[in-house]
Amino acid sequence: MTDTALHTNSRSPGVIVLRWGLFLILGLFALFYLMPLFVMLTTSLKSLEEIRTGSLVALPREVTFEAWRTAWSGACTGIQCEGLRPYFWNSVILAIPAVAISTILGAMNGYVIAQWKFKGANFVFSLLLFGCFIPFQVVLLPMARMLGLLGIAGTIPGLIFVHVIYGLGFTTLFFRNYYVTIPAELVKAAKVDGAGFFRIFWSIFLPLSLPIIVVTIIWQFTQIWNDFLFGVSFSQAGTQPVTVALNNIVNSTTGVKEYNVDMAAAIIAALPTLLVYVVAGKYFIRGLTAGSVKG
Amino acid sequence: MTEWLERHIPKMVLAPSFIAILVFVYGFIAWTGWVSLTRSKLLPKYDIVGLIQYERLFDSPRWDTALTNLWIFGGLFITTAMVLGLMLAILLDQKIRVEGALRTIYLYPMALSMIVTGTAWKWIMNPGLGLQKMVQDWGFENFTFDWVINPDRAIYAVVIAGVWQSSGFVMALFLAGLRSVDGEIIKAAQVDGIPNWRIYTAIIIPSMAPVFLSAFIVLAHLAIKSFDLVIALTGGGPGYATDLPATYMYAMAFSRGDIGQAASSAMVMMAVVFAIIVPYLYSELRAKHD
Amino acid sequence: MKHYVKMAASAIALTCATAAFAEPQAEVLHYWTSGGEAKSVAVLQQEFADNGGTWIDMPVAGGGGDAAMTALRARVLSGNAPTAVQLKGPAIQEWYEEGVLADISAVAEAEGWADVLPASIAGHMKCDDIWCAAPVNVHRVDWIWANADVLEANGITMPTTWDEFNAAAEKLQAAGITPLAHGGQAWQDATVFEAVALGILGPDGFRKAFVDLDMDTLKSDGMVAVFDQMRTLRGYVDDNFSGRDWNLATAMVINGEAGFQIMGDWAKGEFIAAGKVPGDDFLCLSTPGDGFLYNVDSFAMFDVDGADKKAGQELLAKLTVGKNFQKVFNLNKGSIPARTDVDLADFDSCAHLSSDDMSASADNGSLLPSYAHGMALRGAQAGAITDVVTAHFNSDMSSADAVQMLADAVANSM
Q1: CA separation (Å) from B68 to A46, B155, B233, C204?
Q2: Which residues of A touch B116 (CB under 8 A)?
Q3: What is the pLDDT of residues C321-340, one digit of tens each?
Q4: Residue C136 — φ and ψ, nearest 5°?
Q5: What pTM value is reported for the model?
Q6: How close is the nearest chain A Cα to the Cα of C251, in Å?
Q7: Residue C4 above 80 pLDDT?
Q8: Size of interface A-C (CB pairs under 8 A)
Q9: Do A144 and C73 touch (CB under 8 A)?
């Protein structure tokens, strides 16, 4: 498609005006998308005094990283004043296994549903898919009971478990839609050669899967890292993820509001996902192009 | 034995996920359905008393507002994000030199949590702090942008923030869709002298039907689950003007200790989801039979 | 040297008292996360540690405790309840009815709580006949705060009737000052509403309406008048009030942008933090009318396993009601001690007024629980009332419609 992009090479005045108009529109939208980040960033670099007196959108007169330091290691979330740091690591050791496990399970599920059809496979798939849409508030209470019965209430493994379960629908959907585009003849030929279920997956499907693995990891990482509801409900002191700590800093209902610290904390909490999008965004589009969006 | 194993491995691989979903999604929905028939208050109780919670639900003006808001918010959010996403994708597809940078700029909001999005937009849309004040300070004294504090407009403010967050993702989906349209057909059309806009409306966009469906599903799922965004942006206010079913249910279950009522609202929400998703699943899976 | 002996002695006493027990330990779920509040809780944590206990902090901020209550439900259902939880009002009894609260009567009786707490406040701490929670403080909700300079410049004295208040507000409005600083969040609307209701309905009417949920009172002409006054107050609020946090509204009074604020005594902390002196820079007076609306924070102890946790609960309960903590915490927080035998010499004039009014109203039966702060009603009913109050305040609904809606909502919430 890129080779046949819809533009002509002629340089008539009309075309030039059109292209400038195009850039103008794209630029205006870029401003629209950047504005909140700009406000957050500049606010986080101002002193509290300057925020009170100045305009929200003005550049900081004096850049100070004090708010960032406070947010990372000094802001109080209750009695402890350790900033986001300890909670940040909780999120890391929570998100990495949860993303890995749900991606692996999704890949296996997608592989079975797309290529090893058995009676009822589509039914299982639709059950899984509908699971994507269950509002999480619905599952909080019964899930709490279940985690208690399993003996993992309030622990990081408990949170990983919850995220894996409710991530399954989307990861399976991604992989299934990707694998369904791979010709069934490939599996047939491999079977004739005597390759088994796992061998075919390992040596044929996995090497082809990089684009969709990237898409799945980005999606799952964003969902899990940004989750607040499960984090606040299924954690206890010592296992709270970074979003809960962010909420404690930002949402304190009384006392002086330190907007600069709030904003710095919000950016710090969002950094890993931002980084993932900025670094892997290209692969994200490629992965989507490679098949996940085809019905 | 090995042959039997070989034949059943696929089922065995799928089985754990199947059981997990059966218990943790459908079991829990059934549980919610049961609780919605009880008088559960602070904690769930299991003595069925009938449909009283549903009667209370439909008698509640606040639930009316929440449901109306779901239609307004859902409809506007989905269509605006789709139109904007498609437009940006088409514009970006014109061999733009800085495409990579622009794409990242449009896409990054998806990386932020709704809490962060809501907080940032709360500031920008606050008439005394943000955009309105800025433009007025520039000398346009009559400029007003007070949607977030106007009970009749606040839900549209939520739409703006939601669209800001999600339209980049939709753009990515459409861009991927555009890139996978068969180039030969377009070339042929160009050779025939068909104008570009006609090529888009007559050939490319219709061929992207599955992408529209995917985008719709992702957006519908976000609209129905929108909770953090409303909490962070308006807290459901002014009054309860921006209440959505998800926030209504949360308020009932967790701040009011009225779990039976929350369960009944959850069941109604689930019915809405069901009505949207089942046709999609039907078309999706029937196509695969051909 | 003497100090060490004393410490050793108390250490021995403690070891003896808890001979069979492990080191006291408490995981405390609370939503005191802001600067001043967190400092106040730190005082308790310090005392707890000094007595050999291990304090595990579990703060969950947001929504006036909503997020904390979500976490609490999940924890209780998973059989993993926190040791102690910041709870208040009828919610304590509701949790007790679910069979998950612990009995701390032993500590309460040993410490003689019954003798030092006002009867109505002690009532909130009891479930059936046992003690199940420890009170931390008494906040008064029905306060008017004012900027002294602004009032003086406009020749206004603190209003003692709602008519006087309205007249003063008109004057301020004419002078280009926002009469009433207010934040448009549901609980703040409810706070103003209940202060107005107490003034117009009187203590008996208030009790009938918001404690007994008496339908006749809820539908009475008095209630129409309450909503009328709310509509009048709406006219005294600036345009940009929606969603504003209460402390930002307080800041408007502090810097003279606004004349008055109707808010509980936690607002005082903001004035003090800004270096203002009560009586000179800012004024405090109860809202027009008789009565005293209280909002009592407390710790409820949950039923947990383990000798160390049980020991932790007893120690925590004892320290919470202890004189030292009651004094230090409340000096920080703007409230007054729940126990009546604490020396108030270090407290300011507003706290003295609060304390005197509390004793007086306890005697004449006008010491009433705040509905807006979850002291008077259970969540479902209080929430239903707040829905109507905030819907009325944020629209052009007529008072008659609001009263009808109020009665319907209360009936529907049962």
Answers
A1: 41, 10, 19, 39
A2: 40, 266, 269-270
A3: 999 889 988 887 888 999 98
A4: -105, -40
A5: 0.85
A6: 10
A7: no
A8: 122
A9: yes
